[in-house]
Amino acid sequence: MNEQTCVIFAAGEYYDDPIDVPDGAFVIAADGGLDHTHTLGVRADVVIGDFDSLHGARPADADRTITLPSEKDDPDLLSAMKVGWSRGCRTFHIYGALGGRIDHTISSIQLTALLAHHGGIGFLHGDGTIVTAIRDGALSFAAHDAAPGRMVSVFAHTDVARGVNEPGLKYELVDGTLTSDMVQGVSNEFRADVPAEINVHDGTLIVTFPAEAPMPRVTRYHGFGGDLGALDTDVSPLLVAGDHGM
């Protein structure tokens, strides 16, 4: 499948990892991520957010800026994903979404599962690690000079993930079943010069792997429908009017 790639710069932690913006990628700065694009010399195609985490000046180019209310239901990262999805992107590389506030990190991981649920894939980059999610499909890694002690971990995101296989890893799970309260898949490893795969036939997995590993080839076992929904630019209807009920 020929899918356009979207690169999103979020407002969270950045590390010394290299930043890769593929040629032709659609680039989005989410709120304070704009500060990082300026530092890196990257031009964003779209800037989106409520700009509560932006340290520099607000963007002046109205044609490529989407301003959101601060009291909204969708976090800025999800809004950025919706914009990328609407432009035809199904592969997302996201920087600045790991580390810092733990709730933001959990939210970012949840959003990779949302992408997987609709047939997309998101890769969160940070501190030498990549986090992604795969649903009813496979991540295939080419053989490489894997360093010992660099961990690959696999967790069930859905309540149950069936038909889980990990050929080529140090611990080769075969037709396994993982549940969302099991941690059996933590702390596995690639083997040097051995191709590896992580696949699941029914369910969603969260997968973490070393940033120096080759990016996996993604296989989906069936078609997926739906999308991420419309961009939400309204104040949350969940807010209680006036004095918030006090």
UniProtKB/TrEMBL annotation:
Q: Which UniProt keywords apply?
A: ATP-binding, Kinase, Nucleotide-binding, Transferase
Instruction: Tell me which SUPFAM superfamilies the record gives.
Output: Thiamin pyrophosphokinase, catalytic domain, Thiamin pyrophosphokinase, substrate-binding domain
Write the Enzyme Commission number(s) for this entry: 2.7.6.2
What SMART domains does this protein's entry cite?
Answer: TPK_B1_binding
- Organism equals Bifidobacterium ramosum
> InterPro entries annotated for this entry?
Thi_PPkinase, Thiamin_PyroPKinase_B1-bd, TPK, TPK_B1-bd_sf, TPK_catalytic, TPK_catalytic_sf
Q: Which GO terms describe its biological process?
A: thiamine diphosphate biosynthetic process; thiamine metabolic process
Protein name per Swiss-Prot or TrEMBL: Thiamine diphosphokinase
User: Care to name a GO molecular-function term for this sequence?
Assistant: kinase activity
Q: Which Pfam families match?
A: TPK_B1_binding, TPK_catalytic
- The source's superkingdom equals Bacteria
Q: Where is the Thiamin pyrophosphokinase thiamin-binding domain?
A: 137-206
